[in-house]
Design a protein that fits this description.
Helices cover 33% and strands 17% of the residues. It folds into two domains: 249 residues, Rossmann fold; 143 residues, Phosphofructokinase domain (Rossmann fold, 3-Layer(aba) Sandwich). β12, α7 and β13 form a beta-alpha-beta unit. It contains 13 helices and 17 strands. The radius of gyration is 24 Å and the shape is elongated. The strands form four sheets. The protein has a nine-stranded mixed sheet, sandwiched between helices. It binds 6-O-phosphono-beta-D-fructofuranose (F6P). The site of 6-O-phosphono-beta-D-fructofuranose has 11 residues, from loops.
Length: 443
């Protein structure tokens, strides 16, 4: 990994923030570029490369931009996510009140709002305008999926005199931000591009937690509680909950650990089989015979290989994401058909909270997280850092180069602590038999 951060140039102006460089004077301190956050904090048995480290995020003593003349911009892209308005609000407040930046624009409907002729004019974001937006889910700027003409976007930034652009989004958005940064660099323009990791899926590479994730899985708990109540209310009751999580099952896994009534979690990272003694259907039969109810949580991306014919064409959305089949309805039918054929009377309740888990405002802990990310994004941009996002690693805020983030994705490690917690909390099988092993190896 190359974790070095690019700067637009030397930061020569003293920061307007009233901070200190002296420890012990009871004044909060600037962060120096030499402060590092270790990639690995656990020693022993680690492979080589343990000395890699991130630049620590935070306010620097010197800034690159003259705050009074700087024009900043904010754009929100991709799926909706709790906390987006909190990030916008905090960034506007930090730019305006802490640094004295006089103009902050909000681009409408994602990257589309940066393209001339889209018909979406930017709006000026003032402290008055953003004052209470954190109470609301969604994004006041609107969002969209998909890439846009990078050259046209750069021309818009140049024409409007934007020096700092904050880009809120998931992995596809960060790819777009990286392309923007590269084109800006190619043209030699003094424009900083700073990403803020926004996705309920929590799958951005080199970022321990994305904003919105915690709120989303916390809301999902309500669906699990209902599923459990329904399941226990009937003989052989089954509560089946489908949760978002396209290629990473963090929402399903975390919600299930937080609400330990769940007996089985299915995620995209761990293949499973339906049939056979070690398959899902036989497991349900055994579970009902001994415990008389079952709660199952399935991530939307789980078991897609069971739903797709190999010869079928794969369709994608505007962001290039594969359009998924509905694994929840598929399982509902297969489980019911199987139990009926086996003459096991049962009552299956299917709950899909769908977009409800991501359209809410951030919960208090996520709000704190959003505010920190937003402030650190502003700090990074003000001192001329670019081509990076603000992340969290080992519970420290970090500056992470976009080039190392794009093209990869965080997924649950089948041998890691999170999955072990799922297995121990649910008591579910740790593997689903030889047919799964074959499938995994063949992928
Ligand atoms: O990327 C986050 C996410 O919430 C996924 O979990 C989900 O598959 C997707 O967005 C759905 O979003 P949309 O319907 O807006 O494309």
């Amino acid at each position: 990994m190359d974790l070095r951060i690019t700067n637009l140039g030397a930061a020569k102006r003293r920061s307007p923030l009233a901070l200190s460089t002296v420890r012990g004077d009871r004044v909060c301190n600037f962060v120096s570029d030499d402060e590092r956050v270790l990639y690995r904090v656990v020693t022993g048995g680690e492979p080589a490369g343990v000395d890699e480290s991130f630049e620590r995020a935070g306010p620097r003593e010197h800034v690159y931009f003259e705050p009074k003349t700087l024009r900043a911009g904010i754009v929100t892209c991709g799926g909706l996510c709790p906390g987006t308005n909190t990030v916008i609000r905090t960034a506007v407040m930090e730019l305006t009140y802490s640094y004295g930046v006089s103009t902050v624009y909000g681009f409408r409907y994602g990257f589309a709002g940066l393209v001339p002729g889209s018909g979406y004019e930017p709006i000026e974001l003032t402290p008055e305008l953003v004052d209470d937006i954190h109470h609301h889910g969604g994004t006041i700027l609107g969002s969209s999926r998909g890439p846009q003409d990078v050259g046209a976007m750069v021309e818009t930034l140049e024409r409007m005199g934007i020096g700092l652009l904050l880009v809120l989004g998931g992995d596809g958005t960060m790819r777009g931000a990286d392309e923007l940064y590269r084109e800006i660099t190619h043209r030699g323009l003094p424009i900083s591009v700073i990403g803020v990791p926004k996705t309920i899926d929590n799958d951005i590479h080199l970022v321990e937690k994305t904003f919105g994730f915690e709120t989303a899985f916390s809301i999902a708990i309500q669906a699990i509680r209902s599923a459990h109540t329904e399941a226990k209310g009937y003989l052989n009751g089954i509560g089946l909950v489908r949760l978002m999580g396209r290629q990473s099952g963090y929402i399903a896994a975390s919600a299930a650990i937080a609400e330990p009534d769940v007996n089985l979690v299915l995620v995209p990272e761990i293949p499973f089989s339906l049939d056979g003694e070690r398959g899902l259907l036989a497991w349900i039969e055994r579970r009902l015979a001994t415990r008389r109810h079952a709660v199952i949580v399935v991530a939307e991306g789980a078991g897609q290989d069971l739903l797709h014919e190999e010869t079928e064409a794969i369709e994608t959305d505007a962001s290039g994401n594969v359009l998924l089949r509905d694994v929840g309805r598929f399982l509902k039918k297969r489980i019911s058909d199987h139990l009926t054929a086996r003459k096991v009377s049962h009552s299956l309740k299917y709950i899909d909270p769908s977009y409800m888990i991501r359209s809410a405002p951030a919960n208090p802990n996520d709000s704190i997280f959003c505010s920190s990310l937003a402030r650190d994004a502003v700090h990074a941009g003000m001192c001329g850092k670019t081509g990076m996002l603000v992340g969290l690693w080992n519970n420290q805020f970090t500056n992470v180069p976009l080039r190392e983030v794009v093209g990869r994705r965080n997924t649950i490690d089948p041998e890691g602590d999170l999955w072990l917690a799922v297995l121990e909390s649910t008591g579910q099988p740790s593997d689903w038999g030889s047919s799964c092993e074959t499938r995994t190896k063949g992928e």
